[in-house]
Hints:
Helices cover about 25% and strands about 25% of the residues. It is α/β, with parallel strands linked by helices. The strands form 3 sheets. Strands 3-2-1-6-9-10 form a 6-stranded mixed sheet. It is globular, with a radius of gyration of 15 Å.
Amino acid sequence: MDKRAARQLGIKRRNALSAFQKKAYDQRIFSKVIQELSGAKAISIYVSKKEEVDTHRIIEYCFEKGIAVYVPRVKEASLELIRIDCFEALKEGTFGVFEPIGFETIDFKALDKIFVPVVAYDAMFHRVGYGKGYYDSILGQFENKIGLAYTCQEVESIEIDSWDITLDEMIHE
């Protein structure tokens, strides 16, 4: 399936989830993610929009456990990762996504894991995001690349390009 079709299908299926389903699925995903965080000292994670897998609870968990949280911010055609210590350290940025207002960056190699948003994915862990390529510009520098999505967003296969970075793992409900 080409990326555009996969993106449209993933969004359609995700948006079809009821509020009850989404809440239940987010709880299951949260439980799986906190198992992944065992021993982690620093992670990168996106701040979810309403329709995405909820990351707010995951971020709060990290704050409580002393795990450093780095959130992406658009910088030109790429992303930089900035540390946050509270949700007040965010402002609405590019595409209505909440981004950090601070400046403390990190060497990507010092991160234990990076959790990325997924619009659609396949069994080979190929992912489609929103189509701007921001994550692909940095994902090649990470070893623990984990996508967060719902199973309804899985498609049979996604045609990939040479610049597309395959994830190491997918977490879904």
